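[Solved] Which block belongs to which protein?

Original post:
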Amino acid sequence: MTRSTSAARPAATGSRRRIRGLDAEQRSAQRRSQLLDAATELFAEQGFSGTSIEQICQRAYVGTKGFYDHFDSKEACYIALLEQVTAQIQQRVADVAAGAADATWPHRVEAIVRAFVHAITDDPRLGKVTFGEAGGISPAVERQRRSNRRWAAGFLDQQWSEGNATNRDEQRGRLALALATIGGVFELVTDWLHQDNTADSASTLIEDLTRFITVVHAGRRTSREPRTLLPRA
């Protein structure tokens, strides 16, 4: 009797679909992760403009076809990387803020700033990629940067606000001040990254950012206090 091979086919098909214990979807996710890791290294080492897709593929041990399976262009790869790193930073800062919700403002702002600084300096590549390379790449990247700044401004407003805005003008004014403050924070970070810094100098950055935000907050509170007109002589 001739043995039918039909029963063996599903197993054979299944074995072809799994390579080194990973199915096709898992292998695709692994290749994407490898590409983003390689892009992080290369963008930090030689900048966005100095890095080619071929170099990213070589560093990641992924073929060019594999790159285009995930990203339409080098710009798209960078935006995906920026989104990934930003999400990690936002989550880390939000977790610390939630844990320090009952702390006084001086302790809370210091804890939040410390979490933010360590999120971009514990792995020096992340600070370089997110702050040192993001400017001037393309309009699409600039839109992503603006979105990140607006998130940070809204987050800051939540941290230092004494309550909800009573009208639209107050809300607009608060967010404008928070956005300007975030712009100053990001500029201090960028300037720090372009200096000869070390891991130990991160403490200096924490002090500078904390001082800056504290001064702005103090001025904001002062501007909200009722003013008494001096009597005329």
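(Second protein starts here: sequence line, then its structure tokens.)
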Amino acid sequence: MTGFDLPRRLVAEGLGTAMLVATVVGSGVMAASLTEDVGLTLLGNTLATGAILVVLITILGPISGAQFNPAVSLIFAISRKLPTRDFGGYILAQIAGGVAGTIAAHLMFGLPLVEISSKARTGGAQWFSEGVATFGLVAVILTGIKFEQRAVPWLVGLYITAAYWFTASTSFANPAVALARSLTDTFSGIRPVDLPGFWFAEIAGAVAALILCTWLLRPGAASTASSEAKL
């Protein structure tokens, strides 16, 4: 963990999640107001989200680790990269930040502070997509930290940019962001009733990535023995 105390880390997590959600929701509103082409709207939403992730992880990562995501925090807690005593605080900060981000986006565009979404996102394809999206995100983070830590902001930003387009769900990959997006009846929204399916798929994908990467990133016994023999 970083050398910053818990209150500062929680503020960084809340602020980062708020700015992320404000970007997701706000760019969706802006893009939808500029064009009726759904593809162009999604493209605008995608580019803004990928860009802000690079910025936020770069500037807030040294403070809190820039997790901004309960699924990521869960994986870090399981792997003991995040102290168990801090886990609950991180989750609450991320949820509060996400809700604040939706409200901020609504204020900027003159919308009601909160609007319950009516946009349906459900079904096996959507849930599987969320599992794949979160699996990929966690795998990118874990392998990036292992091999090229300074590149992690770019790796995450580029991955999410790509995942917007290759997943049917447009890659929420984040339970806190999904919850925040249920409070906006705009382009990026999701019905509250659809959240449980997304949450389950996201957590399952994250845990699967941890299991695979734990094995993948550990040198095999045979390779170790071979190296020792050469010495």
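Accepted answer:
You had them paired correctly. Confirming on the second one: The chain has a mean pLDDT of 95.
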